[in-house]
């Protein structure tokens, strides 16, 4: 009776103290202990910074893109970004919970689907600012190349990892043919910036896969030659490079972005205090880094650059004790792609690279961009998961019937 009375009087805890402990074998519990929580925290901070940055850039973008018959609210793009984040973050979490084999299989299927979609973009895609990069679906549109980026990295990692089983497989040649096809399709849009990212990530993955240094050198020279040829025969590249080198064409926008970024000094003009952002063509997407510089200062810009670097370093550190060649290639490729996109955007904003129309990952506004980045980060989290019950040691040990080595 006393025990019964004590059980009634003693309040039950709102949260079960054993839930999400190491003994919890539910899917969510296993995910919590296996996921790289530091990497997840860094990405969460980046998304939070992105919301603040879009809120700062939204009034300028709303004023610029309000039509004659439509008047956008000052925080129009901020509210829309909240919706995109609400859709994207669950996608990232769900993908990060997938076993490696399942994540690989879905990536291969997705790469095939979006490669086919990329083929149809020049045919059925609507023209926006002289380019065809989108495909309309119902009331919305999506950019196939954005979704293809992370999926193609995983597909290439799988292809290159097959060399472990059979050295005679022409995996380098096959991957070269695939990247050539993607490059042609992107140049038809035209999308010079994404072409560079695909090519650079492919070369980095070849280096990790053990391609001969001499051949890598030849590929590097070929890449330089390709850029030179693009300058002479590809009008988009000509305009961008001339603007960067000689101050012609749209170079005014890049210079304007640099002036906006430095206008706030070290600590910025404060939230909502920026004025130069109203003169930027894409303050909420391509040039959001400049808006951050004006309103929050160069210190904030440096902190964001350090945050991107921390994410890349964290991934590479996690791969130091990884044995699966596929996981190494996939995770490293995704990290390189993520970091390269961030670096190119920041270099454009500080006038160290030609304008490329590329967003700043998880910070710039955009539905396709946010969803595609969430897919890529979800895959990255899936491929860097570790089982906390596996003791790492310099010796081969038996665990759950499998062999493991540190």
From TrEMBL:
Q: Kindly state which keywords UniProt assigns to this record, in alphabetical order.
A: Cell cycle, Cell division, Cell shape, Glycosyltransferase, Membrane, Peptidoglycan synthesis, Transferase, Transmembrane, Transmembrane helix
TM spans, by residue? 38-57, 77-99, 106-125, 145-162, 169-186, 192-209, 216-234, 296-317, 326-350, 362-383
Q: What is its EC number?
A: 2.4.99.28
**UniProt enzyme class:** transferase
**Principal localization?**
membrane
GO MF:
lipid-linked peptidoglycan transporter activity; peptidoglycan glycosyltransferase activity
Q: Which reaction does it catalyse?
A: [GlcNAc-(1->4)-Mur2Ac(oyl-L-Ala-gamma-D-Glu-L-Lys-D-Ala-D-Ala)](n)-di-trans,octa-cis-undecaprenyl diphosphate + beta-D-GlcNAc-(1->4)-Mur2Ac(oyl-L-Ala-gamma-D-Glu-L-Lys-D-Ala-D-Ala)-di-trans,octa-cis-undecaprenyl diphosphate = [GlcNAc-(1->4)-Mur2Ac(oyl-L-Ala-gamma-D-Glu-L-Lys-D-Ala-D-Ala)](n+1)-di-trans,octa-cis-undecaprenyl diphosphate + di-trans,octa-cis-undecaprenyl diphosphate + H(+)
- The UniProt record lists the keyword 4Fe-4S: no
The membrane topology noted for this protein in its Swiss-Prot or TrEMBL record is: Multi-pass membrane protein
Q: Where in the cell is it found?
A: Membrane
Pfam family of this protein, just one? FTSW_RODA_SPOVE
Mention one GO biological process in which this protein takes part, according to its record.
Answer: peptidoglycan biosynthetic process
Give the record's family classification.
Belongs to the SEDS family. FtsW subfamily.
List the protein's name: Probable peptidoglycan glycosyltransferase FtsW
